[in-house]
Design goal:
47% of the residues lie in helices and 13% in strands. With 198 residues, it is of the alpha+beta class. The radius of gyration is 19 Å and the shape is globular.
């Protein structure tokens, strides 16, 4: 099997910071929650689809060799980020267990940068473990930076009816995770106004 042949779990790709992009692998369709990371293949496809966003590119061999441990770790990290995002959006304190999941994942992969001089000087990210484990550690580190940094105030839950996605507000007027959710929200408001006027 080739990495290109893997079908994803349908998780939306909205270009959010990697931790939020992973958190959004739980999404809603017609009001029902959907898990976009149900199988090892879904995890491999998610990493394949986001590989250009990592410091160390996820190798095809690592993605194809991913197993139940990578599935479990990815889903645990995703769920912990969702718990932290909900707490941040609501102004609450997340459970200690969710914070520990993130911190445990950050410590999972020793990483360093190496100098290369093949066609001039360049720096390459390296890890002592598979690129999937290194990728999860990078997502966890970015989650630490997001939830512990200045951008935490920009984290929002989408206000569209039935949507369960999060986004980082990058424009003062942004209220939704995507243009599609904005259209649905405006249509719902229009329907309510029209119904009330009758």
């Amino acid at each position: 099997m080739k990495i290109e042949d893997l079908a994803g779990g349908g998780a939306p790709a909205l270009g959010e910071p990697l931790p939020i992009e992973l958190a959004n692998a739980t999404y809603a369709v017609r009001g029902r929650l959907v898990d976009g990371l149900q199988t090892v293949e879904h995890v491999a496809a998610w990493f394949r689809d986001n590989r250009g966003r990592f410091a160390e590119q996820c190798a095809d061999a690592d993605l194809l060799a991913a197993g139940s441990e990578e599935l479990r770790a990815t889903r645990a990290l995703r769920d912990a980020i969702r718990v932290l995002a909900e707490a941040a959006v609501r102004g609450g304190t997340p459970p200690r267990q969710a914070v520990e999941v993130i911190n445990r994942q950050v410590r999972a992969a020793a990483r360093w940068r190496e100098l290369s001089w093949a066609d001039g000087p360049s720096v390459r990210a390296r890890s002592a473990t598979t690129s999937v484990v290194a990728g999860l550690a990078e997502i966890a580190q970015r989650a630490v930076d997001l939830f512990g940094g200045d951008r935490i105030g920009d984290l929002r839950a989408c206000q569209a009816p039935g949507c369960v996605l999060y986004f980082v507000k990058d424009h003062p007027r942004r209220e939704w995770c995507s243009a599609g959710c904005g259209t649905r929200a405006r249509a719902a408001r229009h329907y309510e106004r029209t119904k009330a006027a009758r």
